[in-house]
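Weekly puzzle thread! Below is a chain. First person to post its structure in token form gets bragging rights.
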Amino acid sequence: MPDCQPGLNAAVWRKSSYSNPDGGQCVEVADGIQGQVPVRDSKRPTYTPLTPSIHAWQALVRAIRLGRLEP
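Winning reply:
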């Protein structure tokens, strides 16, 4: 099967600092992917990750920090 997202096979994933420490609700992101911020569920690492653009990711983080999104 061809790699539909080049570079993600070698991506180094890190768990979000906001992830639940007891193993639930864990989000991981990969750094260093050109123009994207890949995001995945750490409990399902083989699933295809979401790959928002850097600008979309920054807008999401900004909205969260400003309290514009409900939990």
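Puzzle host: Confirmed. Bonus trivia for everyone else. The longest strand covers residues 27-30.
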